[in-house]
Design a protein that fits this description.
Elements: E1 3-8, H1 17-28, E2 35-42, E3 45-52, H2 55-64, E4 77-83, E5 98-99, E6 105-113, H3 116-125, H4 137-148, H5 156-166, E7 169-177, E8 184-189, E9 194-197, E10 202-205, E11 217-220, E12 225-230, E13 233-238, E14 247-250, H6 255-258, H7 266-272, H8 274-282, E15 286-287, E16 290-291, H9 300-305, E17 308-313, H10 315-332, E18 336-340, H11 341-344, E19 355-361, H12 367-378, E20 382-387, H13 393-397, E21 400-403, H14 416-436, H15 441-462, H16 465-475, E22 480-485, H17 489-504, E23 507-512, E24 529-533, H18 541-556, E25 560-566, E26 578-582, H19 591-608
Parallel strand pairs: 17-18, 17-19, 19-20, 20-21, 22-23, 22-24, 24-25, 25-26
Antiparallel strand pairs: 1-4, 1-10, 2-3, 2-4, 5-6, 6-7, 7-8, 8-12, 9-10, 9-11, 11-14, 12-13, 15-16
Helix pairs in contact: 4-5, 8-14, 8-15, 10-14, 10-17, 14-15, 15-19, 16-19, 17-19
Bound molecules: 5-amino-5-deoxy-1-O-phosphono-D-mannitol.
5-amino-5-deoxy-1-O-phosphono-D-mannitol (M6R) binds next to helix 10 and helix 17.
EC number: 2.6.1.16
Keywords: Aminotransferase, Cytoplasm, Glutamine amidotransferase, Repeat, Transferase
Subcellular location: Cytoplasm
């Protein structure tokens, strides 16, 4: 949810922690943009600036206060935060950093401190007045209380550890104190924190984008780990102070991958990166006639034992899971259940050692999906993660992982990660089919070949951008929009509706086309735009003819139809107000193509509605690390 950054540089070199911290915050803003704040830690003094709204508001305020050139902000250590509000409104007071009652300690926090009410009462009983409505502020006061008196008095490290041991919930916390301005102490439980190891400088970030401009050397922290950083060292331990090891790794994507590369938004750049995302996700997974998973900690024997598959995921990842159900049931003849992750563990699903749970998550941090994984493991199920973020929590807690190689996705609305998830889910299906012998090797090879043709076909679909721009202009203002599909077109309809809601803030619904006459058809009125995803006329003809009938039904009631159909499918032309043609593909692979026009459409309509910042839709955050 929130983005966290920390920096310790060399005071003798006069580095500006403020400039480095603000730059890092800009890269973390996609994680939360309700407010932003930064604290520069100087000997005996904290300089804190925080402001509600996007980072730009904070930058304006700092500029008004003299900016990076003023001596007021001089300092070589800072912590910063971009917020996605959980407890307390997004206003200046609730923005982080939070400062202790004595003005000497500052903290930033991502996650939720579940026992904050109890801690708050204790702090108030000590005569301290809390100023914000957040759960986070307690951590600053607890640190100061521990540092000022009692067994940890005067010991910053012991004080921070004592605070961490008292907290319940999910959190990443960065602690600073004016008595030790060259040091940051940070602890994490179930939310992310990565160390960036520079040359005479040390970084902390919710993800590597925070410091990729400065170093590619990173260290991942384990669960319930603490790190103490100075400009030239980092030391990892657990909450009791027992030394622990981080996992060093080298970041394999560069700054350019996180920049807009000439596009006016990250989302648009990421839409155009989809051919590469699919190509990279498929690469290396079909070698010498065999499907290969990444970190295959499940043997073929394990896959043969599976008698049921559950897919758990949220949002777009859930839609990719719906597609996995169609593919796996068809190729492997195994029952597949797909469940929104936030519902999974509360429903008491029937799981055992023979159940394979596939957890799909771009970030690998989504709290609902992580908790579903944990629940599945307590029930003895095997868990396979499909994830885009190397070393994140969900793959770490899973038995096996298949990485989608979509590269960093910064736009909050998922595009390339979603397509890569579909491809990865299909690789899982093919791996199961191979292990269980439900498909002949040449059939698997043929499906893989068709998958490998998809990137070139997506390139052609990208050519529809101009046509979709005109379509959106012609549509004009719209109050609502419906999306219809059958079979694999149904998850595409759901994804199209989600994109429009997220980006344009317009009400939208996706339905199975056959369900229309069981209720939703009552919504159809003159000029209502309805998107229909039409399956290939080849292969499953019955699907095609049924949906052509559905288009006629809605046209007869005055709807404006936006039809996505295969090139050369003349049968739909008479009923389409707008026809968007995509290349032919196998039935199951069509979503990899039919989703793309809907991404463009939502972006274009969003712009028309005045949402110029499609990378950061209101109220949303990229990684949802709270349940
Ligand atoms: O990181 P994850 O894939 O676990 O995220 C899941 C959803 O939060 C995510 O797909 C969300 O729905 C996107 N904003 C959709 O565009």
């Amino acid at each position: 949810m929130c983005g966290i950054v920390g920096y310790v540089g060399d005071a003798a070199r006069n580095v500006s922690a403020l400039d480095i911290g603000l730059d890092a915050l800009a890269r973390m803003e996609y994680r939360g943009y309700d407010s932003a704040g930064i604290a520069v830690v100087r000997p005996g003094e904290l300089v804190v600036e925080k402001k509600a709204g996007k980072l730009a508001n904070l930058l304006d305020q700092i500029a008004a206060d003299g900016g990076g050139d003023s001596s007021r902000f001089a300092g070589s250590t800072c912590i910063g935060h971009t917020r996605w509000a959980t407890h307390g409104r997004p206003n200046d007071v609730n923005a982080h950093p939070h400062v202790s009652f004595d003005g000497k300690a500052a903290i930033v926090h991502n996650g939720i401190i579940e026992n904050f009410a109890e801690l708050r009462a204790e702090i108030e009983a000590a005569g301290i007045e809390l100023t914000s409505e957040t759960d986070s502020e307690v951590a600053a006061h607890l640190l100061a209380l521990a540092y000022n008196a009692g067994p940890t008095a005067g010991d910053f490290e012991a004080s921070a550890l004592s605070v961490l041991r008292r907290l319940e919930g999910a959190f990443t916390l960065l602690f600073t104190h004016v008595d030790e301005p060259g040091k940051i102490i940070a602890g994490r439980r179930s939310t992310p924190l990565i160390i960036g190891v520079g040359d005479d400088e040390m970084f902390l970030g919710s993800d590597v984008a925070a410091f990729i401009a400065h170093t590619r050397q990173a260290v991942e922290l384990g669960q319930d780990n603490v790190v103490v950083i100075t400009r030239d060292s980092y030391r990892v331990m657990d909450f009791d102070g027992t030394p622990a090891e981080g996992r060093p790794f080298t970041i394999d994507w560069d700054l350019a991958a996180a920049e807009k590369g000439g596009f006016d938004s990250f989302m648009m750049k990421e839409i155009f990166e989809q051919p590469a995302a699919i190509r990279d996700t498929l690469a290396g997974h079909f070698v010498d006639g065999r499907v290969i998973l990444d970190e295959q900690r499940l043997s073929d024997d394990d896959l043969r034992q599976v008698d049921k598959v559950f897919v758990v995921a949220c949002g777009s990842a859930y839609h990719s899971g719906l597609l996995a159900k169609y593919a796996i049931e068809h190729w492997v003849r195994l029952p597949v259940e797909i469940e929104v992750a936030s519902e999974f563990r509360y429903r008491d699903p029937v799981l055992d050692k023979q159940t394979l749970v596939v957890a799909v998550s771009q970030s690998g941090e989504t709290a609902d999906t992580l908790e579903a994984v944990r629940h599945a493991k307590t029930q003895g199920a095997r868990v396979l993660a499909v994830c885009n973020t190397n070393g994140s929590q969900i793959p770490r807690e899973s038995d096996a992982v298949l990485y989608t190689h979509a590269g960093p996705e910064i736009g909050v609305a998922s595009t390339k990660a979603f397509l890569a998830q579909i491809a990865a889910n299909y690789i899982v299906g093919l791996a199961l089919a191979q292990a269980r012998g439900t498909k002949y090797p040449d059939e698997i090879e043929s499906i893989f070949d068709q998958l490998e043709e998809i990137p070139a076909k997506i390139e052609r679909v990208l050519g529809l951008k101009g046509q979709i721009h005109e379509l959106a202009e012609e549509l004009g203002p719209i109050p609502t929009m419906l999306f219809l599909g059958r079979h694999v077109g149904y998850p595409v309809a759901l994804e199209g509706a989600l994109k429009l809601k997220e980006l344009a803030y317009i009400h939208a619904e996706g339905f199975p086309a056959g369900e229309l006459k069981h209720g939703p058809i009552a919504l159809i009125e003159e000029d209502l735009p309805v998107v229909v995803v039409v399956p290939s006329p080849q292969g499953r003809e019955i699907l095609h003819s049924k949906i052509v009938t559905n288009i006629q039904e809605i046209r007869a009631r005055g709807a404006r139809t936006i039809v996505i159909a295969e090139e050369g499918d003349e049968s739909v032309r008479p009923y389409a107000n707008f026809l968007l043609e995509i290349p032919a593909s196998g039935t199951l692979l069509q979503p990899l193509l039919s989703t793309v026009p809907l991404q463009f459409l939502s972006a274009e309509i969003a712009r028309q509605c005045g949402n110029t910042d499609i990378d950061k839709p209101r109220n949303l955050a990229k990684s949802v690390t709270v349940e």
